[in-house]
Design a protein that fits this description.
The chain has about 290 residues and is an alpha/beta fold. The protein has 3 domains: about 110 residues, Cobalt-precorrin-4 Transmethylase, domain 1 (3-Layer(aba) Sandwich); about 110 residues, Tetrapyrrole methylase, C-terminal domain (Methyltransferase, Cobalt-precorrin-4 Transmethylase, Domain 2, 2-Layer Sandwich); about 45 residues. A 5-stranded parallel β-sheet has the order 3-2-4-1-5, sandwiched between helices. A 5-stranded mixed β-sheet has the order 6-7-10-8-9, with helices on both faces. Helix 7 runs antiparallel to helix 8 and helix 9 packs antiparallel against helix 10. The chain is globular, with a radius of gyration of 24 Å. It starts with 15 loop residues before the first strand and ends with a helix. The model has no long low-confidence stretch (mean pLDDT about 90). Its main location: cytoplasm. This is Ribosomal RNA small subunit methyltransferase I. Belongs to the methyltransferase superfamily. RsmI family.
Length: about 290
């Protein structure tokens, strides 16, 4: 039965598709707004209806006869028209992933895109995300990151996948099955470099949460025979900036100065060539004086 003083409120919701983030571990990692939406929506949809029902039971939210419609990888295309029809008829539809934020390596893209195409309201109820949680605890640069999802399962495809990421100037975030973690780490050390800093974030926000930080080569060695359990996020430091040929970047700076201010030209070239912005700006200033 609902608590006599629940944390949630039943509120009138405007018609729309509400994408509700749910906890990735601890059940209390859900926002008050998400609870309000789950308590108030006319129609509930979920990647896993049992998980959503259990979450609502934990927080004392009654169904009150409302439908709970499954919408997952295998039926999203078929379930979406029914859910969008409900929105078009003026109803509020709440969609929740099994854990985390819809669309982020989870279902939701098909229905969200279809709703946008039909001009229907799409609203986000933000909350837990393994991507951001791992980025926060990994101890690696967070000013720019690239979420690449799950690597391919086969060795050859995984090598190609990692090669595409090798020069990315951003912290890399990957999801991986515990069964394939050792293979991923070995291939990552080979392709990205054994000395590149990384972190393995396991069971985030759960009782056995664990973060292991070390260079890729060391992680590959320590996990070669390890039996890993639970949800895993791998965070890898960005590539070291390539050393650019001075003639190449100064030529690019000359071209940029034809249409951009000194400041903007310097910023663009420094970013493109991985160079210190202050150094490029000083060269740009000198070049600007001669124009």
């Amino acid at each position: 039965m609902p608590s006599p003083n629940p944390a949630w409120e039943t509120k009138p919701l405007a018609a729309g598709l509400y994408l509700v983030a749910t906890p990735i571990g601890t059940a209390r990692d859900i926002t008050l707004r998400a609870l309000d939406i789950l308590a108030s929506a006319d129609v509930l949809a979920a990647e896993d209806t049992r998980t959503l029902r259990h979450l609502m039971e934990i927080h004392g939210i009654p169904l009150n006869g409302r439908p709970v419609i499954p919408c997952h990888d295998h039926n999203e295309a078929a379930a979406s028209p029914r859910l969008l029809r409900a929105v078009a008829e003026g109803k509020s539809v709440a969609y929740a992933s099994e854990a985390g934020t819809p669309l982020v390596s989870d279902p939701g893209f098909v229905i969200a895109r279809a709703a946008v195409a039909e001009g229907l309201p799409v609203l986000a109820a933000p909350g837990a995300s393994a991507v951001l949680c791992a980025l926060a605890v990994a101890g690696l640069p967070s000013d720019r990151f690239h979420f690449a999802g799950f690597p391919p399962a086969t060795h050859a495809a995984r090598l190609r996948f990692l090669e595409e990421l090798r020069a990315v100037q951003a912290t890399l975030i990957l999801y991986e099955s515990p069964r394939r973690l050792a293979a991923l780490l070995a291939d990552a050390a080979r392709v990205l470099g054994a000395d590149r800093a990384a972190a393995i974030c396991r069971e985030l926000t759960k009782r056995h949460e664990e973060v292991t930080r070390a260079p890729l080569g060391q992680l590959a060695q320590s996990h070669a025979q390890a039996e890993v359990k639970g949800e895993v996020v791998v965070v890898i430091d960005r590539a070291a900036p390539a050393q650019a040929d001075s003639a190449t970047w100064t030529d690019a700076l000359d071209q940029a100065l034809l249409t951009l201010s000194v400041k903007d030209a310097a910023a663009m070239v420094a970013e493109a060539y991985g160079l210190p912005r202050r150094d490029v700006y000083q060269v740009a200033l000198e070049k600007g004086k001669g124009r």
